[in-house]
Every structure is written in structure tokens, then in C-alpha cells.
Write a structure and sequence with these properties.
heterodimer, A: alpha+beta, Alpha-Beta Plaits, 2 domains, 5-stranded antiparallel sheet, 4-stranded antiparallel sheet, 4 helices, B: Rubrerythrin, domain 2, two-stranded antiparallel ribbon
């Protein structure tokens, strides 16, 4: 039995900031009309556009025609290699440096600011010193729970 | 409109307090990017991101 071919990627121009609304409208239309669309993508790095995976441009046109906030269909195809870099995000541990100021975004210390003391790349953990605590309190925390607020001075220079 | 939460483990979007995909309770309101997978077998994006179920997913969860 032959395998079905992969979908092609098409771009749709939308009103800026309304990409998620358009994606939801398209998803509703796909389920109502049973259109053969593989996926809908909204990438924050590509403002004013949504991407649709489908077999051909006619299906895409049917999915988006006369929808609110849709400005038109971009002619041609988008290569998968071109959007791959937006899909695969680097783990945050690789972006952290000692002395960076971070915010803890989850767990019991959520919302507190801290300075990075030590990084364990293999375990994806960082030892941090809480800035909001009245005394030095080192805590080891998963790197996924950290958000970088500012890089250290040595990193900037 | 009910705000959607993203699962920190599998990035599935849900309006419930528990992830319908992996049953995790570690959900976050801070997410970006939206991927709606309709056809899992033919979608290149689903293959790239190792998604095995149709549905709504976030691209980045913080």
C-alpha cells in the first residue's frame, strides 16, 4: 500500500495581532466542511501571517475565503526547512549564564527574582540565589522554571 | 472567553485544570505560538514536533 504524500505549507496574510482568532475560525470551518487540511500554525515570530498545511491552494482558499481578518493568500509554497527553525526551540539551559538575573515562573518561589550561581547542564538544573530573601538562600531548580530577565555584565561586553 | 492553559509537559492546550493528554496538573497560562493538528499522519509539523495526537498545542510554554 502506498503512503499518502505529506502536506504542503501555505501562508495566509491576516490582520496583525488577530492570527490566533483567524486560526480558530479556520479550525471551525475545517471541522464543519470536513476540509482535508493537515494543520494550522500561528508562529509569534511571523507576525501578520498564519500557515496552513494542505494538499493544494484551492483547499486553503476554501478554508479562508471571506473570513474576518483574512487579507489574502500568499502565492507559492513555504518550504518546511524555512519554518523548522521556528518550531524547534532551544532548551533554556543553553541560554543561561552565571550571574544572570532570572525570574522563577513556577513552584513555591514563583514570581521571585534570583541570580544564577551555578548551572548543571546535564541535569538541566540551575542553583540560584534568591534576591528577594533577606539572607543568601541557594536553591537548585529546574531550568525550565526560569525566565531570563537580564544577562550578566560580563556577557553583555 | 475562558483562557486556555498549556501543559508544561506535552504542550497541549486545555481549558480544564488537568491536561487531557498526559493527565498532568502542571499547566501554565504563559504560552506562545499555536499549532492545531488535524491530520497526524500527513502533517510534517506534527512529525517535526513529535506530536502523536490531533488537537491544539502551544509552541512555547513558560
Amino acid at each position: 500500500m502506498s503512503e499518502k504524500p505529506n502536506c504542503k505549507i501555505f501562508a495566509i496574510k491576516t490582520t496583525g495581532g488577530q492570527e490566533k482568532i483567524v486560526a480558530n475560525l479556520v479550525a471551525n470551518r475545517i471541522s464543519m466542511r470536513k476540509l482535508p487540511i493537515c494543520s494550522i500554525l500561528v508562529l509569534d515570530s511571523i507576525k501578520g501571517y498564519i500557515l496552513l498545511e494542505a494538499d493544494n491552494a484551492q483547499i486553503v482558499n476554501e478554508a479562508v475565503s471571506s473570513l474576518k481578518h483574512v487579507k489574502g493568500q500568499v502565492p507559492g509554497l513555504i518550504q518546511h526547512e524555512d519554518i523548522e527553525k521556528f518550531l524547534i526551540t532551544k532548551p533554556i539551559i543553553n541560554e543561561l549564564n552565571v550571574d544572570d538575573i532570572v525570574e522563577i515562573i513556577a513552584g513555591p518561589f514563583k514570581g521571585m527574582k534570583a541570580k544564577i550561581n551555578r548551572i548543571e547542564v546535564a541535569r538541566s538544573e540551575a542553583t540560584i540565589i534568591l534576591l528577594d530573601a533577606p539572607y543568601q538562600l541557594p536553591v537548585t531548580i529546574d531550568a525550565d522554571y526560569l525566565k531570563i530577565l537580564s544577562h550578566s555584565e560580563s556577557e553583555k561586553t | 472567553m475562558v483562557k486556555e492553559l498549556a501543559c508544561r509537559k506535552c504542550k497541549t492546550l486545555t481549558t480544564d485544570r488537568i491536561c487531557p493528554n498526559c493527565k498532568s496538573k502542571d499547566l501554565s497560562p504563559n504560552w506562545s505560538g499555536l499549532i492545531i493538528i488535524e491530520d497526524i499522519d500527513r502533517s510534517l509539523v506534527a512529525k517535526t514536533l513529535d506530536i502523536s495526537k490531533t488537537g491544539r498545542y502551544a509552541l512555547k510554554v513558560t
